[in-house]
Design a protein that fits this description.
305 residues, TIM Barrel, 11 helices, 7 strands
């Protein structure tokens, strides 16, 4: 009897440790803050919805990457409100230039302009998120910006899960501006389907190239779509076994030290970089990271009418 109880104990113990080994963790980040008012939400309304939704979903800490040229008085108040709610503020440049097509010195000056504006804001951490994730189309440009960021004390706020939430929001705004009606139930359904598929896609890629599920960082944007549905996304992730963690914890994962030496004109995120370096032959982006795909999906599901 004692031996049988001991066996049960060891089975339970092994189960606990195996769950720890396959634990799925994800941090949430928002780019392009503070975005301008739209037909649906003005800036303060969007910010309030995001803050309240994250709080209601028990998400204590996310990161907002700021384009400092958007910081008029209202935008600045919004960023300070995010910080007051406990969230992180990061640098997303002043003008959101594409490094592939921008002079190196102009790009570095743009980082410095943003840094000068952001450095004294509450919640600011020297994390830099490359606009469009583009780190330069040639070796000289890429390394010059990397070196400058290191000199300034910045860390690369890489992502592991890419997606086109920004284009889904664009389709929403276009429909509203054209006077179309929106089936918000179908919109939420498509939003969740697409984002969850991207999460699973990159986690499967990680399993193939790393042999494990790393601490993930999802790229979202400070837009109306996320103000509407990010709480639903959090609930769905948790239902599927994901734990929402802080960005600080996510950036403690050992993949933070794996920096590709390849020049990638279009960057698929840190998992995609590692996959490319390891000779992975499959696609580095989910099929929904495509404007035509999303337009056809929205039409098929009759999201707008």
């Amino acid at each position: 009897m004692v031996m049988r109880l001991n066996n049960i104990f060891f089975v339970l113990l092994a189960t606990v440790f195996s769950c720890d080994l396959v634990a799925k963790e994800i941090a949430i980040t928002f780019d392009d803050a503070p975005r301008p008012a739209t037909t649906l939400f003005d800036g303060p309304t969007r910010a309030n919805r995001l803050i309240e939704t994250l709080s209601s979903a028990s998400v204590e800490r996310v990161a907002f990457f700021v384009i400092s040229s958007h910081l008029n008085d209202e935008g600045l108040m919004r960023i300070e409100k995010y910080a007051s709610a406990g969230h992180i503020i990061g640098n997303h440049t002043h003008c959101h230039f594409d490094l592939n097509t921008t002079d190196t010195e102009a790009y570095i000056d743009d980082i410095l302009t943003a840094d000068h504006t952001l450095r004294n804001l509450p919640g600011f951490i020297r994390w830099f998120r490359y606009p469009m994730l583009r780190e330069g189309s040639d070796l000289t440009k890429r390394d010059a910006v990397r070196d400058k960021l290191k000199l300034l004390g910045y860390s690369n706020a890489y992502i592991t899960i890419d997606n086109y939430d920004w284009y889904m929001d664009f389709l929403l705004q276009k429909a509203l501006q054209c006077g179309k009606k929106v089936d918000y139930s179908k919109l939420k359904e498509v939003y969740l389907e697409v984002l969850l598929a991207c999460v699973e896609f990159y986690d499967e890629m990680a399993a193939n190239v790393l042999g494990r599920s790393p601490a993930h960082i999802i790229l979202l944007h400070e837009n109306d779509l996320n103000a509407l549905f990010v709480g639903d996304l959090v609930r769905e992730l948790r239902d599927k076994g994901w734990k929402i963690i802080s960005p600080e914890k996510a950036y403690e994962d050992e993949i933070s030290q794996k920096v590709t030496e390849r020049v990638l004109k279009y960057n698929p995120g840190r998992i995609g970089e590692i996959a490319k370096d390891s000779g992975y032959q499959e696609k580095l982006w989910h099929e929904s990271c495509d404007e035509d795909f999303l337009e056809q999906l929205f039409t098929k599901r009759q999201v707008f009418y």
